[in-house]
Each structure stands twice: as C-alpha cells, then as structure tokens.
Amino acid sequence: MRRGIWALVVLLFLVLLSGCQEKVTPEERLAEYVKHWNKAEFAEMYSNYLNKETKNTFKTEDFVERQEKLYGDLGIKDVKVSYKKASKDNEWDVEKPATFPIQVKMETIAGPVEFEHKITLVHETREDSENWYVEWNPSFIFPELAKGDAIRIQTSKSLRGEILDRNGLPIAINGTGYEIGIVPEKLTDENNKVKLADLLGISTETIDKQLNQGWVKPNLFVPVGYVAKSNTELLDQIAQLAGVTRMDTAMREYPYGEALSHLSGYIGDITGEQLEKWAKEGYTESDIVGRQGLELLLEKRLRGTDGIRIYIDKAVEGIEPITVAEKPAVHGETVRLTIDAELQKLTYDSMKGEAGTSAAVNPKTGETLALVSSPGFNPTEFMLGMSGDKLKELSENPLNPLFNRFKASYAPGSTIKPVTAAIGLAAGTLNPAEGRTINGETWQKDASWGDYRVTRVHPEAPNPIDLNKAMIYSDNIYFAQEALDMGREQLVEGLTGFGFGEEIPFAYGMKTSQISNEGTISSEGQLADTSFGQGQMLTNILHLASMYEVFLNDGTMYKPTLFLDEEKAQVWKEGLVNAEQATTLRKSMRNVVVDGFAQAANLPNVPLAGKTGTAELKAAGEEDGKQNGFFVTYDSEDPQFIIAMMIESVEDNDGSAYVAERVADIFKYDY
C-alpha cells in the first residue's frame, strides 16, 4: 500500500516538474540548426529541423543529396553561418513566425562567396510534441537560386607562360600546329591509311579506332594525330595522301628545335610520379606539364591557373544567367633568358652535329649567352608523343643525343693551364719571364715516380721555356714543374679559389667541377697531372668559360646567370690575379692563336685569344684512348663573350685544332 502511494507521488512530481520547465526558444533552435549547417550535416537538418511545408515541397534528394553534390562539385569549404541574436527581453509568440538575419560565408573553387539572408522559423506541433522548425528554400544555398534553377560551372583555359631569349626571340611559345585527320568518304585508297600511319609513327589499328567512333560520319573530319608546322617535310608528304587533311590547332612551339632542345626541354602528359608530387597543388591526371629542361625547371612559373565561374542558369526563359563567384584565368609568366638564341643556334650549327658541348658568357656581367649540348633532339616529337621505334633509334644512337652534356663535367686538358699559371703568379711561385730548360719528349722528377712520366705535346719547343712559350706550345712539363714548385696545398687552395669543389651558383643544376674524386691531391704524379687538366680533374663547360672572366676582369669571376631579371655582375670569386698578372696571361693567350697551335682561329678581322686543350681518355691497359678537344676563346679587342667548346673523339680529326676551327666559324658571322 505504501509502495503504491510513493509511486503516485513521484509521478505527480515529474508531471509538475515538466510543467515548470522552459520550452525551447526559436533562437536556441536556430543555434542548433546553424551548428549542423556549418558541419554540412544535411541529413540531420532535413530530418529534424525543416518544417512540414518545406518537406512537402523539397524531397530528400532536393535538399540532402543536392547540397552534398554541390559541396563536392563546387569545392565548398570553410562554411561559416552566423545569425543576429534577439534581445534578451524578447518574448516569443508561438502563433507568429520568428525571423533572424543571417550571414553566410564560404570558399569555393571560384573564390569566396558571402551573402546575407533572413531565416524564418515557425512553431509546429508533431505527435504530442511541439517545437520550432525552419522554413527553407534554395536561396539558402545561393540567394538568387530558386526551385528549378540549375547551378553550373564554366571554365576558361589559361595559357602556359612562354620562354623568350634576351632579345625577345621565341624559345618555347604558345603557337599553332596542325591536327591531321581523315575525311572517310574521301579516303578512297586504303594504302593511304597505311602510309599515314607510317608517317605519324602510329598503327593502322589506332586510325581504325578513331574512324569507328560512334559520332563519325562520311563527310566529317576525324583527327588521328598532330604535326608541328615546322615539320614541313612531313607535312608535304602527308599532303600527297588523298582523303587526309589538316586543321590548325593550338600547339607549343620550339622554333630553335635541336639547337636549344636540352635547354628548353619540352612539355607532355603529367607522369604518375609528378602527379603524386604535385596533386596537392591542384594538378590532375589530364594536365600537360614540363617534362624536361626549362619547361620542367620553370613549371611553377609557366603554369597558368584556369579561370572558373559558378553561375545560376535560371529556369525562367529570358533571364540572363547570374554569376555566383568567378575567378578569372591567370596566364603563366613569360620568362626572359639571358641566352642569345641566335648565338646559340650559330654555336650549335658550328659543331656540325658532333658530340660535344659549348657555353658562352658575357665576361662583364656573368650572363650566360649560350648553353649547347650536341647533338640535340626535336622537342616537338617528344611533346606530341614519340613512337617506340623512334625513341629506340634515339636511345641507341652512338652520339647519344638524349644526353645533356652541358650539365656534365669533363677533364679540361690544357684549357686549365691559364688557371694553373694564374695560381702560380698570385702565389709568387711562378715568374713569367724565367725560362726552364726542358729537353726531350718525357720527364719525371726522379726514380720515385716509377713508370709515371709527363709527356710533352710539342718537344720541338725552343729553350728556355718561359710562361709565354709554355702557353704557345702547351708544354705539360713546364706546368708540371711549376705545380711541383708551388706544392699540392697551394694548387688545391688556388683551384678552390676558382670554384672547384663548389656547387656552381646557377639556376640550372650543373655538375660540380672537381680537383679529384676526394678533392685533394695525394701524390706528386697526381699534382703534375692536375696542373694540365688531367688526372681526376673534371670541369663543367659553363664553369670553364666563367673561369676565363678572371683574365679579362683583373681577377674577378661573376656568378653565371640564366634569367634576364637576375641581378647582373654578382661577384662569385675575386682577387684571383692582379691587373699586371691578368695582362700577362691575356698576351700569352693571344700568342697561342697567332703563333701557337690554335691558328685555325687566327682570323684576319677578329683578334681571338684563348687556349686549346686535349684530354685523353684511356681505359686501363690502353696505350691510346679517345680524345676530347677543347677551345676557350674571346675577341681580345672587344670581348663581348667568352666561348668554351668541347667536341668528343677528335683523336683522328686534328685534335683541339679542329675545335678551334669550329669556334672560329662563330666569329665569322655577324649574328
């Protein structure tokens, strides 16, 4: 009996307590709704917060699924919805709607969107409960959006930035080419399809696949491939095939082709590795990107940003589309190089397709005027997609046209002798007027050298041998003896002062020049070899050209630059020789051309000065090896540029004199 009375008391207490509790206000209800909105919890918003009339008008797919899709398609994020709170003494009337000003902010793929609106809550009773519910319509997505309207995205393509030379000449530009195609009803000879496949480096199956697409009609142009407009020979051959025609199309152009190929590089489909690396920066699997050379190095500067517009396509006819957000296309940057494209082409052509490399620098500014790797390749062929047979042909070419030689380093041979002399002059161990008596073809210091001997190239040189004669006759014994006098530490310190063992401060990554594999000189024999550019010494061609600036700038070498907007004449090394020592070396290098073995460069109208060099590459056990020939030179009266050239395998082609002849050809033209 007592237990029943107590249960009744508890029940009455709970009923009384519930009657005393305050009911939820529309503002509290809105606060909950906004919290879900900011979290994009559309299912919760629809199920528990929308009023009956809204649910009758808009089904789940109109509210939940549509907004979820829009958030994905439009890249909507960072949504911040806020509302203006009511005054504290406000009394809510369940018979009247409650309206609040709201502010909506969000980020989209087309930029920020921000708008103000008013949201209304109405009081409804449902299944013995009552609460406030939101009246909703599509204008809460975007203010101008109404039922039946469509939200659309429009993109505008950006242009890739262009690469120009110092004079504005095109190196990699947005030009035009040709899309090659077939008009089926005009292809009366099936052999023409086979011929076209061979010319384009594709299979007949690929062409058939294009022709068998559902949209193809007998009189329509069906594209099957692309050809650069510079490939006139191929275009002429294609023009002979009945039923095959062409249409203009936008295409990247590389006007200087092979001459600048290793520097310009090319563009192509993004690789899986690149996509993985750049996905967070907005790259997609359909992007065309830099694949090699400056196209790759400058990818982030050259890449444009496509424009995008979000707009409302109104259901009512006659009403113009309404823009919600728009981000205009931003074209890629135009990059100007210090390169002189005409000098580059002239240099490349002078090498006659032989394997080698060249670099030219402005001695007063450090600007790089030419950077050649020979032979080159056709960048357009890689851009358009090269056939396997063509790639195999290039890969198996003994001249290795795919190898970028200007990035590499090579034994410089006797072209390093002016540097060795400069180190000795600055150290005070070399007296340019003091002659040495040197007899015979070979020499060694003493028996401790074992089988090692220094060999002279021109043993006919008349004694005594001073610095000038040593330069003219390129006397290895003279420089070996001078190196022994200065000692290992002095030579290593001097070469380090010229930048050996140090990363070349250049935008395009170059192989570091080295004194030896370890950066030290471990024996007197290695000391002798190093003095005339053999042993383990390796030099990058651009660095070699830059080192000769020291002789024209009384001891100063500038950082080599590649971009026209870089600061000019940045000092890299200085104080390497004084003015008097520089003058001595310049006179000797002029005599090398006039009286020495670079007379192929002794032009009547251009007084060249410089130094030849031959580096022998012998494998173990070989008596004779292949030889790389070098020549570094400049106009002694008007040194607008210093040019260094190396050509491989000159052992049967007059050695370094052949290279001097090739370089001299460049100075014969007023480019």
Quick description:
The protein is an alpha+beta fold. The protein is 32% helix and 23% strand.
Describe this structure in words.
The chain has 671 residues and is α+β, with helices and mostly antiparallel strands. The strands form 8 sheets. Strands 6, 7, 8, 9 and 14 form a 5-stranded mixed β-sheet that branches. Strands 16-15-25-24-23 form a 5-stranded antiparallel β-sheet, sandwiched between helices. A 4-stranded antiparallel β-sheet has the order 1-2-3-4. Strand 6 (163-164) and strand 7 form a beta hairpin. Helix 16 (417-427) packs antiparallel against helix 23. The chain is elongated.
Mind summarizing the main beta sheet?
5 strands, mixed
What characteristic shape results from the CA principal axes?
elongated
Number of strands: 25
Amount of helix: 25-40%
Distance between the termini: 120 Å
| Residues in β-strands, percent | 15-25%
Mean pLDDT, to the nearest integer, reads: 93
Q: Which structural class fits the helix and strand makeup?
A: alpha+beta
- Point out poorly predicted stretches: 6-21
Number of helices: 24
Radius of gyration: 39 Å
Could you give the topology of this structure?
Layout: H1 2-20, H2 26-38, H3 42-49, H4 52-57, H5 60-73, E1 77-83, E2 98-108, E3 111-126, E4 129-135, E5 150-156, E6 163-164, E7 170-182, H6 190-200, H7 204-211, E8 222-228, H8 232-239, E9 244-253, H9 261-264, E10 266-269, H10 272-278, E11 288-292, H11 293-297, H12 299-302, E12 307-313, E13 322-327, E14 335-336, H13 341-350, E15 356-361, E16 368-374, H14 379-384, H15 388-395, E17 409-410, H16 417-427, E18 442-443, E19 454-455, H17 467-472, H18 476-486, H19 488-497, H20 524-531, E20 539-540, H21 541-547, H22 549-552, E21 557-558, E22 571-573, H23 579-594, E23 608-617, E24 626-635, E25 642-647, H24 655-667
Parallel strand pairs: 6-14
Antiparallel strand pairs: 1-2, 2-3, 3-4, 5-12, 6-7, 7-8, 7-9, 10-11, 12-13, 15-16, 15-25, 17-20, 18-19, 21-22, 23-24, 24-25
Helix pairs in contact: 2-3, 13-24, 16-18, 16-19, 16-23, 18-20
